[in-house]
Write a structure and sequence with these properties.
Number of domains: 1
Structural class: mainly alpha
Strand content: under 5%
Distance between the termini: 59 Å
Helix content: over 70%
Oligomer: single chain
């Protein structure tokens, strides 16, 4: 009987690990899939919904990814918020890294991108679109990315059964791979800032041992960046 109990326990453990894997990876996979869809169907000169598909795909992406996060919410361990001053300082430093070239060193502005002013003819549609954009930027993206990069991959590269690894455990390999992968997941002009950002957000994970703190750092950075984008109309940073 003991071997039957052992097999059952092993099977349950494997199933739980697969469910945890799905919970941590699926939102990111869906996010990237929908992001790629924009480029696939974008047809300049066509009807608006094809010429600028980001105006409807981004809200759809926001809703679907948020739905997955809510569905899997019991699979995530967010941990108490720790070192809030340190977390806030890192978020501010990351924000400065992103805006410094244009704001302080007079690099060419990045004006081409998701421009909600295209909907200025309809105030209701304009503000709804902008609201969705900020929800995506400050809530969905921080949750999706931190759950994937810091809660999953940073630990998975230490052990395949990543849930057995305490959050914020340091490994030179996982640090390097996650930092580089985070960097290259961004567009080429963003690589320098994204490389440093990946390293700094990893540092938040190591110092706070808290997924909640990582999400907060990412959210604060993105909120500041979003406000700066709207103020300067540098839509290329969306």
């Amino acid at each position: 009987m003991r071997w039957l109990v052992g097999m059952s326990s092993t099977g349950n453990s494997a199933s739980a690990t697969k469910q945890q894997l799905l919970a941590h990876v699926a939102p990111m996979f869906l996010f990237i899939l929908l992001l790629g869809l924009v480029g696939m169907i974008k047809s300049p000169g066509a009807e608006f919904w094809l010429a600028a598909p980001e105006f409807w795909i981004y809200p759809l992406q926001t809703l679907l990814c948020a739905g997955l996060l809510i569905y899997f919410r019991r699979r995530y361990k967010f941990h108490p918020l720790r070192r809030p001053v340190f977390t806030g300082a890192i978020s501010l430093l990351v924000l400065i890294l992103w805006i410094a070239p244009q704001q302080f060193f007079h690099f060419p502005p990045r004006l081409v991108g998701f421009n909600p002013d295209a909907l200025a003819y309809s105030p209701g549609l304009y503000w709804t679109t902008l609201l969705f954009r900020f929800v995506r930027l400050t809530i969905v993206v921080p949750f999706v990315e931190e759950i994937f990069w810091r809660a999953f991959l940073l630990r998975y590269l230490i052990a395949e059964r990543f849930t057995t690894i305490p959050f914020g455990t340091f490994s030179p390999l996982s640090f390097a791979v996650v930092t580089l992968a985070f960097c290259f997941s961004h567009s080429r002009p963003d690589w320098p800032a994204a490389l440093l950002t990946g390293a700094l957000y990893n540092l938040v994970a190591y110092r706070t041992k808290s997924l909640r703190s990582c999400i907060l750092a990412h959210a604060l950075t993105n909120l500041g960046l979003g406000l700066w984008i709207v103020a300067t109309k540098q839509w290329g940073f969306w």
